[in-house]
Description:
single chain; mainly alpha; Four Helix Bundle (Hemerythrin (Met), subunit A); about 80% helix; elongated
Amino acid sequence: MAPEIYWLVLTVILSTLQVVPYAIYRIGKIGLLQVFLNPLPGDSPFDKAWAHRAYRAHMNSFENLALFAPIALAVAFTDSGNAATAMWAQIYFWARLLHWPMTITKAPFLRTLSYFLGLYATMAMAWHLLSQTL
């Protein structure tokens, strides 16, 4: 398996698991049955700030995965990966892993740094891919 695919799969797993904290919060707030039903009128899903930040961190993971995944797949499918693209894929994963708790705990500098590190890793892989065709 290409290392870029390995790190992509780990990132997908990470993004999927990020639902757990705020899902547990919602179940505790309104009960398991109500979670599966339509929202109640006036229900504020995340009246606790940390739960709302956990939700936003989860959504941010998906938003960034939409950028990273096609690049990682393109690198793997074109067989243009090398040690640098493998490193950038790994950095992307660790940056996203760091971003999640930094968002929930309101650590603005580290949150922003981890976000841009992940974005930079994605762009470095894209640049590598494009430079192969020039």
